[in-house]
């Protein structure tokens, strides 16, 4: 059985090409006669990063706790391909409702580059649906807690009760609404913190997997939050 492949220049979409020598690793090299671009004819068949559906697989592995190097090794793609797929992803959190009876709020620490560069995630969680309602990144202080309250307002979210631990910034920020203070009232969000540390490689407490860029760090969390709320990516 003989298979015939039609080779075209991906830039010009032209079939006006010529053979242009052999690569050191034995592959036939081609050159477009119009734009002079050189390429390997079977690159799309030999490199897994060109296959359809590979981006979806990379993102799915990422939300299940796989690191960049692990994904590159398993899927036989470059680390650059994995990082580009993450950096080009655009996932935005969307709330399911406009009013919640009880929201739990808590803080969650991670780091970028080194453990001295801590990045605090402050977010609101709805225990009944397992939904992450809103979140902000910054320092662990009163200003960031107030930014979370502002983010809820910007999203058009109202709530009856707020559950939190006894951190003073939460107590001060939500003092005008009914507060349920104590670890007993934050069991749901503490459990979700554990889930995040299992699903996001950058969230592991003791490991060598961390982001070097803040943008990639936040996009990894955006991806997982969207997956938790919607069940798909």
Automatic annotation (TrEMBL):
GO molecular function, one term: DNA binding
GO annotation, biological process: DNA transposition
Matches recorded under InterPro entries: Transposase_27, Transposase_27_IS1
Pfam families in UniProt: DDE_Tnp_IS1
Domain of life: Bacteria
Xref: NCBIfam families: transpos_IS1
Name this protein carries in UniProt: IS1 family transposase
């Amino acid at each position: 059985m003989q298979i015939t492949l039609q080779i075209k220049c991906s830039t010009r979409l032209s079939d006006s090409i010529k053979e242009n020598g052999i690569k050191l690793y034995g592959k036939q090299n081609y050159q477009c006669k119009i734009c002079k671009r050189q390429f390997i004819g079977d690159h799309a068949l030999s490199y897994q990063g060109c296959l359809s559906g590979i981006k979806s697989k990379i993102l799915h592995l990422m939300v299940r706790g796989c690191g960049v190097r692990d994904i590159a090794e398993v899927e036989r793609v470059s680390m650059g391909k994995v990082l580009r797929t993450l950096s080009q992803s655009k996932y935005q959190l969307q709330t399911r409702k406009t009013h919640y009876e009880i929201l739990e709020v808590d803080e969650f620490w991670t780091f970028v580059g080194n453990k001295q560069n801590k990045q605090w995630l402050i977010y609101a969680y709805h225990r009944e649906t397992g939904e992450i309602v809103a979140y902000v990144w910054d320092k662990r202080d009163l200003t960031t807690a107030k930014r979370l309250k502002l983010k809820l307002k910007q999203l058009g979210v109202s709530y009856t009760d707020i559950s939190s631990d006894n951190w003073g910034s939460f107590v001060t920020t939500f003092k005008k609404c009914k507060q349920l203070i104590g670890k007993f009232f934050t069991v749901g969000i503490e459990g979700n913190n554990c889930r995040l540390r299992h699903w996001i490689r950058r969230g592991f407490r003791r490991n060598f997997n961390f982001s070097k860029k803040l943008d990639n760090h936040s996009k990894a969390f955006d991806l997982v939050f969207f997956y938790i709320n919607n069940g798909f990516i």
